[in-house]
Amino acid sequence: MNWAQLVITVVTVASILGVLTLALNMQYGHAGMINFGLVAYFAAGAYTYVLFTQPPPTSSLDQYLIGLDLPVWVGFLGAGLAGLVFAAITGWPTLRLRGEYFALTTFAFAEVFHSFIVNEQRFANGTRGMVGLERPLRDQITFMDYNLFFAAAALLFLVIVYLIFERIVRSPYGRALEALRDDELALTTVGKQSSRFRLEVFLFTAPFAAMAGAFYIWYTTLALPEIFTAEVTFVVWIALILGGEGSNRGALVGIFLVVLFEELVRAIPFTTIRAAQVAASLEVVALGLLLIIFLRWQPFANLTRVRRRTTG
Amino acid sequence: MLMGLLDIENVSKAFGGLRAVDDCSFSVTAGALMGFIGPNGAGKTTLFNLVSGIYEPDSGSIRLEGKELVGRRPDQVATAGVGRTFQTPRSFATLSCQENLLASVSSPGEGLLQAFLGSYRSHEEEVAVEATELLSLVGLGNRVHDPADELSGGELRMLEVARQLIRHPKILLLDEPTAGVTPRLQGRLAELLRSLHADGLTVLVVEHNLGFLLDLVDHVVVMVMGTVLTEGEPDVIRNDPDVINAYLGRRDGDAA
What we know:
Number of domains of chain A: 1
Number of helices of chain B: 10
Distance between the termini of chain B: 38 Å
Number of helices of chain A: 12
Largest sheet of chain B: 6 strands, mixed
Oligomer: heterodimer
CATH superfamily of the largest domain in chain B: P-loop containing nucleotide triphosphate hydrolases
Number of strands of chain B: 10
Order of helices and strands of chain B: EEEHEEHEHHHHEHEHEEHH
Largest sheet of chain A: none
Helix content of chain A: 55-70%
Distance between the termini of chain A: 56 Å
CATH architecture of the largest domain in chain B: 3-Layer(aba) Sandwich
Helix content of chain B: 25-40%
Shape of chain A: globular
Strand order of the largest sheet of chain B: 6-7-8-3-9-10
Strand content of chain B: 15-25%
Structural class of chain A: mainly alpha
Structural class of chain B: alpha/beta
Order of helices and strands of chain A: HHHHHHHHHHHH
Largest interface: A-B, 32 and 51 residues
Radius of gyration of chain B: 19 Å
């Protein structure tokens, strides 16, 4: 087993999914909004990035219609913008829904979007997807291992998002979100419009999830519908619950543990296909068991309450 | 028309076939300390929910200082100056008592940009000082930094009152403030309400604890079947045969 490679992979994947976990923590851990369609914002950003940066179709095998051939950074910003637009479209009609109704609607939106990218071949080649996509600065990075460089870039993005979110959470804004989560009616009767906070949190966090999608394209070099399934949403949910919802640090601990666990299983050198299949199933079982154990004993519970600076 | 601080005029609200509030009218003068009594289901809490905008009346008008409240969202009614507490106390359970109060006033730090820039510190510090004072006033001086979910039922009621007081409402509606509160805290609550009344705050209290209420308020509205049966000074109400009949009940064998 190549330990250095394992660490690089874990840092890269956990950093990208960590941004999603932080976004979900803001929505659910702080504002109490149950979003089961998180992958849609991730995928919207990923596909927007691809359409922005790919050259127009040349081969007759390509069925996609639009390729804008724009620079990488425009594609990255475009991904963020797509997240914002997608959040506005899905958020506006659903934010009056509460709890499980909101959860079901977000899940349905994500499934509709997934169905769209699977079936609409003119969008991004449907199930065949777009493969062999370029990784940014691939030729310029000669002084160090590219994978190490990319892991550092993903980690830097995660740290920036973490710092922004921490600042929001520790401000009166974060306090208002927690008040909303604790008792919406009580917040209303002190003169605050709860729907304003819900919509803002949705619009504010979605672009980061979408930009993480662009990072994921850089990592996998693939835009395939099968890597943007509900499984992404639920891995992030498991990570958040493991780490303790309500705490950004907990969210990061959770996602790094889950990704480490997944990559460890994948790194085991199996000699038969059967053994690999069994291991893949056991991985899901073990993740489920971990979730139950964590829910029962809450080892990170002391991390989860935000301590704001108080005076007086 | 009547022009008190709060005017309720011909307000009705039905839930299906049940007329919870039925053509109810009364006026609250500024500075009043007014009690509401009536049997269960008389429409007292529904009336509070109508005034605070949680329900919209089927008909009628509710005006604060002459301005119509009907049709406004609950947060807009609250901002207009109506403060209220609930029969079952509500709080921000994971926030400390002090944060419960801070979260109840509007802060510049509740805009995303200001939150990010951090331009709210001086405002926060001012309000934090006031919050601590207010918590001492309602008897929670030793609970300032404890999370609300560690408070007893009675303490939660006091916290809820404090959360409204820090907003400086024009009128405060209290729904059964003594339920589940120890006699010691009840005494403190009565003392607090008297001093708020002396400072000119208008207070409406729904209460089943008649001993507490009739000693406290200077005007009583008796509600039965969603409408006002009678109103007047506590001593008059105490001896009104209709009130005794509708609310306190008669002993078997009493002359009608």
